[in-house]
Amino acid sequence: MGWLLVLPALVVFCVVILYPFVRAIVGAFYRDTLFLPEPVFGGLRNFRDLFASAPVLASWTRTIVFVGVGTVLTLLLGFAWAVVLNERWPGAKLMRSLSLLPWLFPSTVVAFLWAWIFNAQYGVINGLLLRLELIEQPIYWLSSSAGAMSAVIVAKTWATIPFAMAFFLAALQTIPGDQLDAARVDGAGNGSVMRHIVLPHVRYTTVILIVLVAVNNLQHFDIIYAMTEGGPVRATTVLAIEVYKQAFQSWNIGLASAIGVVWLATIAVPAYYYLRSIFGGE
Amino acid sequence: MQRTRGFRLRHAAVALFAAVALSSAGAQTITFGGWSGEEEAARPVIMEMIATFNAANPGVTVEWLGYPWAQVQQNFLLLLRSGTAPQVAQLQDRWLSTFGELGALADMNDVFGQATLERHIAPGLLTVGQYQGQQLGLPWIAGSIGLVANLKVLEDAGVADLPVTIDDFVAALEAIKANDPNSVPFALTTTGNATISTDFQVWLWTYGGNLFDAEGNVTVASPEAQQALAFLKGLIDDGLVALEVGRGDARQLFARHQTAFYFDAPVAKGIARNNAAEGAGFDAFITPMATPTLAAGDRSYQTAWGHLLVLFQGEGQTVTADSPAARFVSHLVLDPAWPVRYFEALALLPSNTEATMSASFQADPYAVTWLDIAARSARVDEAALWPNAPQMTDAIGEEVQSVYLGQKTPERALQDLQRRLEALVAEVR
Question: What is the pTM (predicted TM-score) of this model?
Answer without folding.
Answer: 0.84
